[in-house]
Amino acid sequence: MSIVSAAISPLRAVIIGAGPAGFYTADQLLNEGFEVDLLDALPTPFGLVRAGVAPDHPKIKSVTRIYDKTAAREGFRFFGGIRLGEHLSRQDLLRRYHAVVYATGTGAANRLGIPGEDRPGSVAATRFVAWYNGHPEAADDTFDLSMDRVVVVGNGNVAIDVARMLVLDSAEIDVTDTADHALDALRPSGVREVVVLGRRGPAQAAFTNPEVRELGELRRADIDVRLSELEGAEPEDTRAQRNLELLRGYAERPGTGASHTISLRFLRSPVEILGAGDDGPVTGVRVAVNRLDGGRPVPTGEVEEIPCGMVVRSIGYRGVPMDDVPFDERRGLIRNTGGRVCDDEERPHPGEYVAGWIKRGPSGVIGTNKKDAADTVARIRDDREAGRLATPEEADAEATAAFFDERAPHAVTWAGWQLIDAHERRIGEQLGRPRRKLVRLHELLETGRRVKP
Ligand code: NAP
């Protein structure tokens, strides 16, 4: 390739998934001189910042201002509403881009693998979170919240988010961007107690300190922790140490007589979700009481039953295989070595990369994905220098946009998203809320398509 043709044919990258990992990767690839197309299956960008972060955490959501700056850069384009495997194939991408980065996150819930897991009222946190956050795929879900006790399984921040959302009062929740259908169900909810179960001890909980501290600031809920379950806990780092201090504070704090309670129970593994017959709704959870052996939970033989009307399983996520992208079933991730997609003998696929949760698993906070993206982009830079990127036959920006328009004529560009954004903010503001989300795909597409690509 001559110097002249290199100058008029810039390197082109496509990123699949417009969540934090996708945006950090986009920004860094723009720094490297690539033109970047960012695609998302939804008409809206921001992935879990829009559909995962709890609505009562607006400060965390304000990270999107950084992504807005990326989107405003020369060389960036967004195409929302295009799904890999449905509208286009992996080969379609490799034909048009020098680098393809999968940043699709981990959309499926882990399973407990216990009897009763599929009873009505046993739900994956992924789905419940998607519902209250207005994800279009969960917009038609309904959750019966008439029971007085809900059990949340898992000791991660998602479990805390769910527990908190279930006990917020109207003054706390009405000022958020919680989806309207969820507000309508949460306001009259009968839930008075949320029991959060950890299979290991308080020192092993994956909670981060601000989330544990925030529990103590809820307006209408007391936090119930048993001192007996904190005894003998051996924190291994300052985060666990601080968690333990906060939990001890809750255990020692006298109850305020609040109408609601979040009970944190440790060393308890669900062994069966109870209900009538094989498929009657949830009536309780049978739990095995554990002790720790070298940090691992081991059943003591003691068993308890916790009556409840709903179980939310918040035990982590796994990726969903896409098209023919190599997938590691055991880890639930795209098969990769340090961010390069590879085959099962670790031979890299030229021009294919991963970033974010689908690369390393669902861990860390939003900012963790910045460093993660930098690691992947460093591999892309190395491969560019070594001549190991893909060799697309049709790496032309305009022709690619025309191809997308043919395959997904409904797709929404960045300008279209800005219309959706402005509309949601405007109708939200009238109600004293940051935004009122459009939750139906057709509404999003109609609003976003008022700007043609
Ligand atoms: P997580 O932090 O990995 O927690 C998963 C929990 O599930 C762990 O307590 C784990 O216990 C438990 N678990 C796994 N398998 C289990 C089983 N079979 N039975 C019982 N318990 C089981 O996952 P997450 O809560 O889904 O959060 C994902 C990531 O998002 C985390 O990095 C989290 O910090 C982040 N996040 C952050 C925020 C925030 O910053 N505010 C909010 C939400 C999420 P073991 O430890 O025993 O395996």
How would you characterize this protein structure?
This protein has 453 residues and is of the alpha/beta class. 34% of the residues lie in helices and 22% in strands. It contains 18 helices and 20 strands. The longest helix has 18 residues, at 368-385. The protein is globular, with a radius of gyration of 23 Å. The two termini are 31 Å apart. The model is unreliable at 1-7 (pLDDT under 50). Bound molecules: NADP nicotinamide-adenine-dinucleotide phosphate.
Total number of beta strands: 20
Major sheet size, sense and barrel closure:
7 strands, mixed
Q: How are the strands of the largest sheet arranged? A: 3-2-1-4-20-19-18
Unique ligands: NADP nicotinamide-adenine-dinucleotide phosphate
Quaternary assembly = single chain
* Mean pLDDT over all positions: 96
List the topology elements.
Layout lengths: L2 H6 L3 E5 L3 H12 L3 E6 L6 H5 L6 H4 L2 H8 L4 E5 L9 H5 L4 E4 L5 E2 L12 E3 H8 L16 E5 L3 H11 L2 H4 L6 H7 L6 E5 L11 H7 L5 E5 L1 H4 L7 H15 L7 E6 L2 E8 L6 E12 L2 E12 L2 E4 L3 E2 L8 E2 L4 E2 L1 E2 L2 E3 L5 E7 L2 H4 L7 H18 L11 H11 L6 H16 L11 H8 L5
Bound molecules: NADP nicotinamide-adenine-dinucleotide phosphate.
NADP nicotinamide-adenine-dinucleotide phosphate (NAP) binds next to helix 8.
